[in-house]
Amino acid sequence: MARAALLLGILLLLAGCREQVDAGGSSTSTTSEVPTSTTTTRPPDTTAIPDPGTTSTTSTTTTTTTLPPLVGFELTQLASGLSRPTFVTAAPGTDDLFLLNQTGRVLRLAATAIEPEVVLDLTDRVGAYGIEQGLLGLAFHPEFDRNGRFFLYYTDLQQNSVLSEFSEDSGVMDPDSEQFLLQAEQPTDRHNAGMLAFGPDGLLYLALGDGGKASIHSQDPKTVLSSILRLDVDGATPYAIPEGNPFKGSEEGADEVWAYGLRNPWRFSIDPVDRLMYIGDVGQERFEEVDVISLDEPGHNLGWIPMEGTACFQRACVPEDFTGPVLDYPHSEGCSVTGGYVYRGKAIPEIDGTYFYADWCGSWVRSFTYVDGAVTEEKDWTNDLGKVGQVTSFGIDSRGELHILTSEGFLYRLDPVR
C-alpha cells in the first residue's frame, strides 16, 4: 500500500520555455517543459515484475502471479547534463546503455552507474559543424557479444557522410580498428538523416536524407541520398549486396538502395515481430510524416519531392505513384518528427505493439498502433508525461523498454505506475 501511494504521488509536472531551431529546417518558439518528478539515480529495471500469467513451479506448489493494475505512466530520469546527445541504444548481451555525443564520443551508462563514461572518442575525425551533422548513428552487430563488431555513421571533417565498422575487445572500443564501408558526398550541411539498425534478417539498414538538394536527389535511386540502404556486412568485405535489393545489378539505381524518395529520415526503427520498418521523415513547409513499410517489400518510392505527407508538394503529383505515409500532421502541431519504436518490452504489456514518436519542436510524445494496414488507437501522452523537451531520439534497452533522449541533455525511461 505504501509503495502504491508513493508511486501515485510521483506523477509529474512541468515548467520552462525557450526558442529552438528545427532539426528539419525551420525555427519556432515552443514551450519546452521537462518533468520534475524524476529520480537522478538509476533504479533497477521494472521488468523484475513477473509477466501476467507467469507460472512459478516448485516441487510442491504452482503459483500464478500477475502485475498490479496499471494506473499511469512516468518518466524515470536515468541521466542528465548530457552534451549534444543524438542517440541511445543497448548492445546484445549487456544491460548497459550506449549514447552518442554529436561531436564524436560514444558513452556507456553501465546498469549500476549514475553517470555515463566515454568509451570511444572520435572527435579527431567527426565534423559537427551544423545542427544535422556529427556522430549520428550506432548499430551493434547481432552477435556483438561474441564478435565485438559495431557500426557508426558520422559526418567527417570534409562534411561527407561515412559508414564505418569498429571492434571492441575485452570491453575496450578501439578507435584504430575503423574500417570504412561507405562514404556519401553531401552537397550541404542539411538532411544527413543518420539512423542505423540491423533487421531480424541480419542485414544492416542505413538512412540518408536528400542532402538539402531535393530536386536533384529525391527521385533518383542512382544516388544513395534520399534513401534507405540495405547491406550485408557478413557476406563480403566491406559488404555484399543482399538478394532482393531492387536495383541490384541494374543501371536504374544504386545496388545499395532498398527504398527511396525520402527527405530527412532522421530516425527509423524495425519491429521484429511484424517485420515492419517505421520511418519518421522530416517535412519541409507543411507536414511531418510517419511511413510504415514491410521488410519483405523492397523498392518503395516514398514520394518526396512530388509529395509532402499526403499532400502534393509539386504540381505534377500523382499520389497513386508513391507509397504514402500512414500518418501525417501539420506544422501547426510541430515541425520536425522524431521517429521512435514499437513497444515490445515486458514492464508494460498493456501497450505491447504501440508505436511511439515525437516532435522536436512540439516537445510532445504521441503513439499509435498499426493493424492490418491502418493506424488505430492514436494517443497524445502530454497528460501523462507533460512536455518532455526536444526529443532527439528514442531508444530501447536489452529488455525492450522504451527510452527518450532530449536536446536538453536528459535521458528518461518510460515506466508504469501500478
Largest sheet: number of strands, sense, barrel closure: 4 strands, antiparallel
Number of strands: 30
Full CATH superfamily name of one domain: TolB, C-terminal domain
Mean pLDDT: 88
CATH fold naming of one domain: Neuraminidase
Low confidence ranges: 1-62
**Widest β-sheet, arrangement of strands:** 5-30-29-28
Helix/sheet category? mainly beta
Task: Provide the CATH top-level class of one domain.
Answer: Mainly Beta
What is the percentage of strand-forming residues? 35-45%
CATH architecture of one domain: 6 Propeller
Helical stretch tally? 4
Secondary structure: helix percent: under 10%
Shape: globular
What's the gyration radius in Å? 21 Å
- For the record, give the distance between the C-alpha atoms at the N and C termini, rounded to a whole number: 11 Å
Can you tag this structure with a few keywords?
single chain; 418 residues; mainly beta; Neuraminidase; four-stranded antiparallel beta sheet; disordered N terminus
Short description:
By secondary structure, the protein is mainly beta. It has helices spanning 2-8, 144-147, 214-217, 382-385; strands at residues 18-21, 27-30, 54-57, 62-65, 72-79, 85-90, 97-101, 105-109, 117-121, 135-140, 149-155, 161-169, 172-184, 196-198, 204-207, 227-231, 257-260, 267-271, 276-281, 287-294, 307-308, 311-312, 327-330, 337-338, 354-359, 365-371, 374-380, 391-396, 402-406, 411-417.
Give an overview in words.
There is one protein chain. This protein has 418 residues and is mostly beta strands. The chain has a domain at 80-185: TolB, C-terminal domain (Neuraminidase, 6 Propeller). Helix content is 5%, strand content 39%. It contains four helices and 30 strands. The protein has helices spanning 2-8, 144-147, 214-217, 382-385; strands spanning 18-21, 27-30, 54-57, 62-65, 72-79, 85-90, 97-101, 105-109, 117-121, 135-140, 149-155, 161-169, 172-184, 196-198, 204-207, 227-231, 257-260, 267-271, 276-281, 287-294, 307-308, 311-312, 327-330, 337-338, 354-359, 365-371, 374-380, 391-396, 402-406, 411-417. The strands form nine sheets. It has a four-stranded antiparallel β-sheet. A four-stranded antiparallel β-sheet has the order 6-7-8-9, with no helix packed on it.
